[in-house]
Structures
1.
Amino acid sequence: MVHAPPSDTPWWALRYEELAGVDPALLGVSDHDAEAEFVERLAGFGAGARLLDVGCGLGRQAGALSQRGHNVSGVDLSPRVLRLARERWNRLFPGERGPNWMPGDMRWLPNSGVYDGVLLLGGSFGLFASDADHQAVLAAAAQQVRPGGSLVMQTPNPYWWAAKAGTQYVAPGSWADGVEVVQNVRFDAVAGRVDERTICFVGGRRVEPPVQSLRAFTPAELVALVRGAGFREVEVSGTEGWTVPEEPLPVDATESVWLWVSARS
Ligand SMILES: C[S@@+](CC[C@H](N)C(=O)[O-])C[C@H]1O[C@@H](n2cnc3c(N)ncnc32)[C@H](O)[C@@H]1O
C-alpha cells in the first residue's frame, strides 16, 4: 500500500496548505473552546500557563487557550498556514495580543525546557511514514516541557476507524461555505494508518490535495511511546463520538473517535 503521492515533498508538507487555499475552514470545524477547556482540565493547567501547541494549524486551540488567559506559542511547518492563523486571530480579536506563531518542524524543535505544557492536537501526531519520526516528535516535546510539565495529545482511535471507515459527501456550508467535499477514509490494518482522500469542489473547480495518511496508534502503543520519551503518569481516555468530553471518558472501541493522552514530565 502506497501512503504518499509520488513526489519528493511529503504529503504532510502539501495537504494542509492546499486545503487552506481552498478554504481555511477545511483545516478544522470542531469545537475549539470546548477542546481548550478539556485540555486545561486534563493537564490541570493553572492560570497563565505557558503552552506550546505543536502542529497548531489555524490556531484553533492555541487561540482559544490564549483567550482563556494562557501564554501560548503555536508552531507549524507551514508559514502560509501560520499567516492564516495570524490573520484569523486579528480578525476575531482585533488589537488583542494573541499566540506567538513560530515556524518549525515538530521533529527538530530547539530545546527550551520552559513550557508548562506541550500539545499535539487534532491529528498533528502520526503524520510521518516512520515511527522513528514519531519518537523524534515525542523526544522533542519532552525537551520543551519544564520538569513536572504536561503533554496532551489527541489522536485518532484505530478501533473506531477500523469499523467506521467509508465514503461521505459533505454538503456546502457544512465544513466550508460554498465547498462540496467527498471524503473517502480507508483504514489500513497492517500499517495501522487512517488514509483520507479528500476531493473538494468549489465553484466548478475540482481540487484534490494529497491523501492524509495518519498513523493511528492503539492506546497500548501510545503509552509505550510516551513513556519511552521519558514521560510518566501516562493516561489514555476516549470520547463519545466526535464530541469533546467534559471529563476523561473510558476508551470505547466503537464509540471513541479520538484518544486523548495526558502525561507528566
Ligand atoms: C491535522 S492539522 C492539525 C492542526 C491543529 N492542531 C488543529 O487541530 O486544528 C496538522 C498540522 O500540522 C502541520 N504540520 C505538518 N507537518 C509538520 C511538521 N513536520 N512540523 C510541524 N507542523 C507540521 C500542518 O501544516 C498542519 O497545520
2.
Amino acid sequence: MKYQIEVKSSFCAAHALSNYGGDCKYLHGHNFDVVVRIESKYLNQSNVMVMDFKVVKKALKSILSSWDYGMLLNEKEDHEYMEHLQPLFERCVLFETEPTCERLAGQILGKLQVSLFDDGLFGAPEYIKVASVTVSETSSYSATVFADSDDE
Ligand SMILES: [Zn+2]
C-alpha cells in the first residue's frame, strides 16, 4: 500500500515552440495549471499525513515564481525573440530546448524533488518522493512526467 497527495498551482507565461509546424511556433501565452503528486509508503507527522500540503505548495510556488508572467524561450532557436524582446522583459527564461508542457513538467519534478527531499527537511528517504507532475496549457492539453519507478 502507498499514499499519494496532490497539490495544484498555476502560472501564466508566454512561450514559442519554434520547431513546431503549426501556430504554436508563434509567441503566445497560456495560464498553465500544475498538479504535483507526492507518494509515500508511510504516513509521516505522527502517522497522519504524507506531508503538509502547505510545504509542497510553498516549494512549488517558489519554483513557478521565476516563470510566472515570464517569457519562456528556447535558447537554441528563439534568437529573434531574444534579440528583440529580451531587453524589454525582465523575466525571459531560457531553456535548453522547446519549453513544452512535457519539458516544464520535467523541470518542476526535478527541482521539487531536490528542494523537498534531497535538500529539504526530510533528507532523502526512499519511501517518499515526487511521483509525477502534470502541466496543462489548456483544459484539453496536458503532459505528465513520472519519476522513475523503484521497480525499474
Ligand atoms: Zn503553447
